[in-house]
Request: fold
Amino acid sequence: MSKKLRPETLCVQAGWNPKKGEPRVLPIYQSTTFKYETSEQMAKLFDLEESGYFYTRLQNPTNDAVAAKIAALEGGVAAMLTSSGQAANFFTVINICQAGDHIVSASTIYGGTYNLLSVTLKKLGIDCTFIDQDADEEEISKAFRPNTKLLFGETISNPGVMILDIEKFARIAHANGVPLVIDNTFPTPINCRPFEWGADIITHSTTKYMDGHATSVGGCIVDSGNFDWEAQADKYPGLCEPDPSYHGLTYTQAFGKGAFITKATSQLMRDLGAIPSPHNAFLLNIGLETLHLRMPQHCKNAQIIAEWLENNDQVAWVNYPGLKSNKYHELAKKYMPNGTCGVLCFGLKGGREESIRFMDKLDFVSIVTHVADARTCVLHPASHTHRQLSDKQLIEAGVAPDLIRLSVGIENVDDIIEDLKQALEK
Reply:
């Protein structure tokens, strides 16, 4: 697929290019295994000497077509689908870190990712230092150690809706000889392409806007191909030294810019197996075909609702980067001039308990764990997604006790406002 095609066309056309007589719509290759005619053909696949399909745990044509579409949208060289966004983040870290290593991360990230980095990875011997993403470069740089292997952040934080200064983070990461990894779930590549601002690796929870309809859990890792692993070979032996599980193959030498994703696929997916089903990849592809249509509507509705909430006497505060009064408004204009996402946060003057009572009075706006799909929904993170965090950790993660996360859907905006209004009146 030509790189000159614009995002709207890539959403529809990229990834699957049928030949004469082949199905126009991406097929579901619902098969665990694939046939070959000789033993030698299979052996070359297992030695990574040739590309092809032999077992869906490693690769599947449906999954690969969708991964290729996402890579094209982000402007990356390669991508790999995973069974969830959390699996994408886990695989990304484990692909370049091992016991005794260290990572640095923004503290204002999704609660599940915070727990992954702070608790689960610590059990595997990987330490994480959390920093204030709004601190200056000198302050953030103090968190780095000789064994630091990556810097992590979210383009738009979940649920705090804070905007990451991508260029600043890229400068810090590269000055310390590590890649910048960014979770780009909320803006999607329709509203922000972090590779253009210096990021090296992008992760997604495709469960959110990319799927768009709350049908399939999934994730994706995209590599820019820009980070020079060989220049930091001592830091990344897994990529730059022979892999004994593949007859001494060295990924950077054998696959060049494709080294990171090839290792993640052939080594980690082989051993850990967190794959999406081909059917889920098929559903994700359907969602991607309308991503460029849905994102502007999400942003348009969210902007109107944020302005309405800001002028409501019962509302104590509103956090949405589209508001001129917002702390991150200028950063949002820089990195996401066409809009951020449909997620916003606000609190009521009655505090935490009032926020909970308000949510219980809503009609079609639903209380759900999910976020970022076609339907408007709300969540109280302190009681739900972030309830495992202490009060101190909640504040560090940018989650106030009264914070209501409102994920604005693509319904008629007047209907959404009327439901919010009647709940506030009650």
The longest strand covers residues 148-154.
